[in-house]
Amino acid sequence: MLLTRPSVPDDVPAQRHLWQLAFGDGDAYVDNFYSSYYRPERVLVLEEDGQVRSMTAWFDTTFVVPGKGAYRAAYLYAVATHPDCRGRGLAGKLLSDADAYFQTLDIPAVTTVPAEPSLHHFFAANGFGECFRHFEGTLSPSELPPPPQTALLCAASPMEYAATREPLLAAIAHIAYPEDALRYQAGCCTLGGGGLFCASTSAGPVCLCAEGAGDGTVMVKELLGSPAACRLALADLPRVAPAQRWLVRTPRLPEESSANCSKGQFGMLKWLDSSLHRAWDWSTTGYLGLAFD
């Protein structure tokens, strides 16, 4: 018999095993989730005959749409099915049951970031539409502005980062993250030699999230601020997150765009509220940002 339910603490070993089978993350990375964000009700599991076969964590976020409203949104994360059980529709059942669960919590929207491009088709078949995009480009040390005479970027707490981030995104449809979700992101950054950073520059406030991606690469998972403020932040980037190259994401096309800057599919949206689904303009592009990918 198949049963989808909120998890209980006794499920954690099975969840961790499934997570690592699906994504290959090390113990320290998974430990960070369970120490900084996990609560039993924040993971849904599908069990078969008492065995956990599929799971998804979810972040309690807000979809802020200027001129429309702010909607509670469940961001699905670490959607995984045991390799021995794939191809049987278990993940689809888990997603459907998760929708019903979120509706009992009066959550009208669900978002997710497919772990690989092919999974966009899977989530589309389960009611999701393309919504969230960003610009992404690579920079080498020689492409960065000259370093500033004095340090600009300062390590930021999750609360400080959110306080800087939200005004910078006020004019853009975007996902706003609660403090405990940003605490999880900060832990991921620390494991990769990065962090959450903010600065008050002569061109205005700026914030960025840097996380090591291996092979000498640091992913700047978001860079927010005016174009001039972002240039100042990039000049100070090697000091706080040294690398051989940086993969930089931003919601706006940089003024000096280059051939290696692209805008592609990233996150997906499903409205659980039928009236919001009917009214939504699917040509609207939102910004999901951090995404914990």
Description:
With 293 residues, this protein is an alpha+beta fold. The chain folds into 2 domains: 2-132 and 265-279, 3-Layer(aba) Sandwich (Aminopeptidase); 134-250, Aminopeptidase (3-Layer(aba) Sandwich). It contains 8 helices and 13 strands. Strands 1, 2, 3, 4, 5, 6, 7, 8, 9, 10, 11, 12 and 13 form a 13-stranded mixed sheet that branches. Helix 5 crosses helix 6. The model has no long low-confidence stretch (mean pLDDT 93).
The number of domains = 2
SSE class: alpha+beta
> Please, what is the average pLDDT?
93
Query: Describe the biggest sheet?
Result: 13 strands, mixed
Instruction: Bin the helical content.
Output: 25-40%
The gross shape turns out to be globular
CATH level 1 name of the largest domain: Alpha Beta
Rg result:
19 Å
Number of strands: 13
Can you tell me the CATH architecture of the largest domain?
Answer: 3-Layer(aba) Sandwich
CATH topology of the largest domain: Aminopeptidase
Distance between the termini: 32 Å
Structure, briefly:
By secondary structure, this protein is of the alpha+beta class.
Write the layout of secondary structure elements.
Blueprint: E1 2-6, H1 12-23, H2 27-36, E2 43-48, E3 51-65, E4 69-81, H3 90-104, E5 109-112, H4 119-125, E6 129-139, E7 154-155, H5 158-168, E8 174-176, H6 179-191, E9 195-201, E10 204-214, E11 217-225, H7 227-240, E12 245-250, E13 262-271, H8 274-279
Parallel strand pairs: 4-5, 11-12
Antiparallel strand pairs: 1-2, 2-3, 3-4, 3-8, 5-13, 6-12, 6-13, 7-9, 9-10, 10-11
